[in-house]
């Protein structure tokens, strides 16, 4: 005879749920701590910070659809929604805004449409230029190829408003470094 219990211990199940809750809380605290450290460094380093203005609520809408028109790729969309929510983009921007304001800086939200389909070098806009993570300008006079996120980030930086440069004055304006440079 085996001594396999016939009933579950209700306390064991509750302890397991409590352990899971503690692990999730710890992961969230680490993520929030990282957001605070990163946004503090950005606010201390730059007088102007440009971010893509995203409609997070629209991006995380359900793909379930209706009985008449059921959604497609519902499981993938649900996973993407969880991922977007888990990253807490809105909280990051909120932190950037209040920390920049406290330091006399500003956060500029640049409208997202077109930033990932427009070549930063020649200004040609074509959805065919973007293929996943690769941006290859279809303008024959240009032909720039690079990472799509890099291209979009340059477009956001070049959008209306003061140009943003880093520590080494890479842009049209002088960089603003509010702390002495760190020793390398």
From TrEMBL:
Recorded superkingdom: Bacteria
InterPro entries registered for this protein in UniProt: Cas12f1-like_TNB
Residues annotated as domain Cas12f1-like TNB: 89-156
UniProt source species: Streptosporangium minutum
UniProt keyword DNA-binding present: yes
Keywords, alphabetical: DNA-binding
Biased composition (Basic residues): 175-184
One Pfam family recorded for the sequence: Cas12f1-like_TNB
A Gene Ontology molecular function term of the record: DNA binding
Keyword set includes Chaperone: no
Region described as Disordered: spans on this chain: 161-184
Designated name of the protein: Transposase
């Amino acid at each position: 005879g085996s001594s396999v219990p016939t009933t579950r211990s209700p306390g064991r199940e509750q302890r397991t749920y409590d352990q899971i809750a503690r692990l999730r809380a710890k992961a969230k605290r680490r993520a929030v701590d990282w957001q605070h450290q990163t946004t503090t460094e950005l606010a201390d380093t730059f007088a102007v910070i440009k971010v893509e203005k995203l409609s997070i609520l629209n991006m995380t809408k359900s793909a379930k659809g209706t009985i008449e028109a059921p959604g497609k790729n519902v499981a993938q969309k649900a996973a993407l929604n969880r991922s977007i929510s888990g990253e807490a983009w809105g909280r990051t921007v909120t932190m950037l805004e209040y920390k920049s304001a406290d330091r006399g800086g500003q956060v500029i939200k640049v409208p997202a449409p077109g930033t990932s389909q427009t070549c930063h070098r020649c200004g040609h806009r074509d959805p065919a230029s973007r293929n996943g993570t690769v941006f290859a300008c279809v303008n024959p006079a240009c032909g720039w190829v690079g990472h799509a996120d890099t291209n979009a980030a340059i477009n956001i930086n070049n959008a209306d408003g003061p140009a943003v440069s880093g520590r080494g004055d890479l842009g049209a304006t002088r960089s603003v470094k509010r702390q002495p440079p760190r020793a390398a």
